[in-house]
């Protein structure tokens, strides 16, 4: 059974880059036809899809975040990483990684504040 675990800083200053990593166990991020997604939920709001990296390595991002977002992966470590540039307090949220929206990490709180 695949398991996902997010990690990263809990506090980021405005204008900095947020980097979050999702470590995957129980399955390879390069095999099969899976979508490895990043999702977030801001206070009082619903879930917001950020982007994905497919098992093939193809990426796609939410249009409104596209210019600030990139997702990379380390196949040796079997993990993938979200980079979100020029963060603002509006980026404060709980961030989740998920495989095909079926298996989810527990989520990690990120606060953007000076």
Explain how this protein is built.
By secondary structure, the protein is an all-beta fold. The protein is built from no helices and eleven strands. It has strands at 3-7, 11-12, 18-25, 35-41, 47-54, 59-61, 69-74, 79-84, 93-99, 103-104, 108-112. The strands form two sheets. Strands 2, 4, 5, 6, 9, 10 and 11 form a seven-stranded mixed β-sheet that branches. Strands 1-3-8-7 form a four-stranded antiparallel β-sheet, with no helix packed on it. A hairpin with a 4-residue loop joins strand 5 (47-54) and strand 6.
The end-to-end distance, rounded to whole angstroms, is 40 Å
Q: What does the radius of gyration come to?
A: 13 Å
Strand content: over 45%
- The count of strands amounts to 11
Structure annotation, total helices: 0
Which runs of at least 5 residues are low in confidence (pLDDT < 50)? none
């Amino acid at each position: 059974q695949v398991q996902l675990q997010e990690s990263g800083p809990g506090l980021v200053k405005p204008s900095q880059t947020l980097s979050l990593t999702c470590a995957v166990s129980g399955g390879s991020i390069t095999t099969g036809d899976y979508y490895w997604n990043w999702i977030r939920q801001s206070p009082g709001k619903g879930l917001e899809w950020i982007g994905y990296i497919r098992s093939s390595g193809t990426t796609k991002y939410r249009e409104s975040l596209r210019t600030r977002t990139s997702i990379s992966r380390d196949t040796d470590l079997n993990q993938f990483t979200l980079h979100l540039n020029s963060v603002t307090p509006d980026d404060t949220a709980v961030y989740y990684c998920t495989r095909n929206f079926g298996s989810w990490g527990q989520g990690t709180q990120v606060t953007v504040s000076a």
